[in-house]
Amino acid sequence: MKSQDIVILLKLISLQEQEQEQEQGAARLRLEAQGDDPYSVRNLEASLGISKTEVNESIKRSVSSGIASKDRELGRPKPSRRNLFNFIVHGLKFTFPAKPGSMQRGIPTAFAAPMLEGLLVSAGNYIYVWPHASGREMGQSVDPLFKSVPEAVQKDERLYEYLALCDAIRLGNQREVGLASERLSTRILGK
Predict the structure, then answer these.
(1) What are the record keywords, sorted (predicted)?
(2) Alpha helices of the chain — where are they, by DSSP H?
């Protein structure tokens, strides 16, 4: 498994949720790139900044590991939400550890992300950021799960929340991990 596999799987979940909202009439599915199918390798490449070859290989790895399957009707990759959640909560911190780095400008992550702000009162002085040239916040740099994450999250707020929660799990102490896990469970599993 590679770190971009998590990014791709979370993007697929985000697309599923956008599609469900569209079907319920609550919102329109935003097509972020050319073409009709947001699940296509071409559109995933455009929205995530991950090459088509790497997207294909990632989906193959995810299917063979059981963290995703192929939808029989549509042929789309379909993440196993339960398996993905369990991997993020119990394995992500050890498989893809995060270490805070130097102070840089960037996009806030973990509990500093806009949609998570205020959920946790931190004793630390600094926030965590993914380094990015157009970032407005100053904080301790954290390498994202994949180098294109800062650009991808600017196109998809759900994906941003999911990846920020992943970073809270990768970086947090027991209390922070517990809170991030609860929020992720609510968002991904509906529990």
Answers:
(1) Plasmid
(2) 3-23, 41-48, 52-65, 81-90, 92-95, 149-152, 157-171, 174-184
With contact defined as beta carbons under 8 Å apart, do 121 and 146 qualify? no
Question: Which range marks the domain in which residue 180 is found?
Answer: 103-189
The CATH number of the domain where 67 resides is what? 1.10.10
Instruction: Answer yes or no: do 125 and 160 share one domain.
Output: yes
The β-bridge relationship of strands 128-131 and 137-141 is parallel
